[in-house]
Specification:
The protein is of the alpha+beta class. Helix content is 48%, strand content 17%. Helix 3 packs across helix 6, helix 10 crosses helix 15 and helix 15 runs antiparallel to helix 16. Its main location: membrane.
């Protein structure tokens, strides 16, 4: 049977690469092994074997989880038709059952050792990379699954995997097939084309009132305007508030000194240390003993011994001890917090008391403090002013926001009281649709949601305080509203007339293209036809092109390689272009050169074709099993 199926699929490969959807027969996830409760509804039977609603629900949830994992943040349930997804999942379960039956009838068996090996490879049952019997039994118990149930299901999964491998492995691509494919991919055709522009015919066509009316009636939905509102609103914008805030000289100087002090605190410094190691988990006695040792080393240094020599003799940090304890030029953030806090509290040349970290006790000395690189005050004046003004504006914004919210609530029928009290203006938008797409406040999702609410449209009251992007706040109200409707012909006449003119010009261009195509198909020389072409027709003389000739319009290239060319005869056909038509002529074909096909490229092609051919054989097996099976689906239970 497999050979017959394979024979049905041979020859399907030409030059088109077909993307195959490989059916995931092994449905991963612990819940696929759960025992089904008694009385579960049957949604399908396959050769007498039942598929229950419980099983379908479990598989459907797994499909959704797989999609969610694959798409990540881009996942949106609305992207998928849930009912269609359930049907596809049911089909997978049916196909799985068919293949299990086929594998059983074919005598395909999975050895106990293969099941054991597969079980040990499953990471969910591993601890520190090794299979754990305890974890295995614990997880199964938590899910009310017995080892016998799980291993039986795993055995079935392995049988399906072996069946697929056996079918896919039958695909063998010959050198002749590879060379035919490459010759087809590299094939060249001598093609020329005439481009007929529809725009060139627009002045030649006439448009009367009857045509406009007829087109309008036939395409009314094209002139349907969506529901829309015009809004009045008041806006609190921190940038506008900041622009009105004055900042005095003393405040700017004070902020500059803070900036300098901050820069100096963060300036790099050269540090050396001595470590007396003690584990973080050591008892109090060991910690105290280590501190005494560190204190003794500190006294040696204070007594006149060289820090570098003491570090080399006694430090438990071998890397820095060889350098006299020197850690080099460092910055804040390079060390654990207690060490860093002590190091940045010292003056240059100062030696610390013993400092405790998770590594032990440290003696720290700062040997150099680099000066902070801070621009002069005048260079930073504008930046400092903007910084202070922004901070004050944000504080003021919070106060004004609360006040605006209260005033808008107390005066629901108007924004004027709030605007006058807060010294801001009432602004108005143009028409806004639910889809947005406008600028400024009209592009804010929060505004669109509030604007098209029943309360806002029906009662025409102020909205709540809306938080917008950029730390802005607004209150809106609907000033005008219009329902979705087809626009009257008088309002869209110019658009309809232009559409009729464009359509008639396109028809005229096609007629001209068809006439040119017929002449070429009848055997007239391309040069003769092109030479007699009228205004609006441009010619591209015949040249050799390939499937990947990027300088040729895609529609022309595709049509050129679809044309059937017999012997020395030429063939011609139309191709649609943006703004017109192309008359494509092909008068010669030459096969692609395969002489330079290397071993590596040949091997890659063989692997790809084997895989595609094998997948096609497997799909054919599934299709054949479906044709022969007795399958019943309860649509009312899906």
């Amino acid at each position: 049977m497999l050979q017959a199926i394979r024979d049905r699929t041979r020859g399907w490969i030409a030059y088109v690469i077909v993307a195959l959807l490989v059916i995931p027969f092994a449905l991963f996830g612990m819940y696929n092994y759960l025992a089904e409760g008694g009385g579960a509804q049957t949604v399908a039977t396959v050769n007498g074997e039942e598929i229950t609603r419980t099983r379908l629900d479990q598989a459907h949830r797994q499909r959704q989880a797989q999609l969610r994992e694959a798409l990540g943040d881009r996942f949106d349930p609305a992207m998928f038709d849930d009912q269609q997804l359930r049907r596809e999942t049911l089909q997978q379960l049916i196909d799985r059952q068919l293949l299990l039956g086929y594998a059983q009838d074919a005598g395909l068996r999975v050895a106990d050792q293969d099941v054991a090996n597969a079980l040990r490879r499953q990471s969910v049952f591993q601890v520190d990379g090794e299979f754990s019997v305890e974890r295995y039994r614990s997880l199964l118990s938590q899910n009310n699954i017995t080892p016998e149930q799980y291993e039986a299901q795993l055995r079935r999964d392995l049988a399906l995997e072996a069946l697929r491998d056996a079918v896919v492995g039958t695909a063998i691509t010959s050198d002749a097939e590879i060379e035919r494919l490459v010759a087809l991919q590299r094939q060249e055709r001598r093609a020329g084309w005439l481009s007929v522009s529809a725009a060139a015919f627009e002045d030649e066509v006439s448009v009367d009132d009857a045509a406009v009316q007829e087109y309008y009636e036939a395409n009314r939905d094209d002139y349907r305007r969506p529901e829309a509102v015009r809004l009045r609103y008041v806006l609190l914008d921190p940038q506008r508030l900041a622009a009105d805030i004055e900042v005095d000289e003393d405040t700017l100087r004070e902020r500059y000194e803070e900036r300098v002090a901050q820069a100096e605190r963060g300036a790099p410094r050269r540090i050396r240390h001595i470590l007396v190691e003690v584990p973080e988990s050591a008892d109090e006695a060991a910690v105290a003993e280590a501190r005494e040792e560190a204190q003794a080393l500190r006294e040696r240094i204070q007594g006149g011994e060289s820090f570098a020599q003491v570090a080399e003799d006694a430090s438990d940090d071998p890397g820095s001890a060889r350098q006299g304890g020197d850690l080099g030029l460092v910055r804040q953030g390079d060390f654990v917090e207690p060490f860093e806090e002590a190091a940045w509290s010292l003056e240059e040349g100062e030696l610390s008391e013993p400092v405790r970290t998770e590594f032990g006790w440290h003696l720290i000395e700062v040997t150099e403090v680099r000066s902070a690189d801070v621009p002069a005050f005048e260079e930073l004046r504008d930046e400092l002013r903007a910084e202070v003004a922004r901070e004050r504006a944000e504080r003021r914004l919070y106060e004004l926001g609360n006040e605006l919210e209260t005033l808008a609530f107390e005066n629901p029928d108007s924004l004027q009281p709030a605007a006058e009290t807060l010294g801001i203006e009432v602004q108005e938008t143009d028409w806004i649709t639910p889809e947005g797409g406008g600028e400024g406040i009209a592009a804010e999702p929060a505004v669109l949601e509030a604007a098209f609410s029943e309360e806002r449209i029906g009662e025409r009251v102020n909205s709540d305080l809306l938080e917008l992007e950029g730390n802005r706040y607004a209150v809106i109200r609907v000033a005008d509203h219009r329902d979705a409707a087809v626009e009257p012909l008088d309002e869209v006449r110019d658009r309809v007339e232009a559409a009729v003119r464009e359509a008639r010009a396109a028809d005229a261009a096609r007629e001209r293209a068809e006439a040119l195509q017929q002449r070429l198909a009848d055997g007239e020389a391309f040069e003769a036809v092109a030479g007699e072409a009228s205004e609006g027709v441009s010619a591209q003389s015949p040249r050799w092109i390939r499937r990947d000739s990027g300088e040729v319009p895609a529609a022309v290239r595709e049509q050129a390689f679809r044309l059937a060319v017999a012997g020395d005869e030429q063939a011609a056909e139309l191709a649609r272009l943006d703004g017109g038509w192309a008359v494509v002529m092909v008068d010669a074909v030459r096969p692609g050169d395969v002489s330079d096909l290397g071993d590596e490229e040949r091997a890659q092609l063989r692997s790809t074709l084997d895989r595609l051919d094998g997948n096609a054989a497997f799909e054919a097996l599934v299709a054949a099993l479906r044709e022969e099976a007795d399958i019943s689906i309860r649509e009312d239970r899906l």
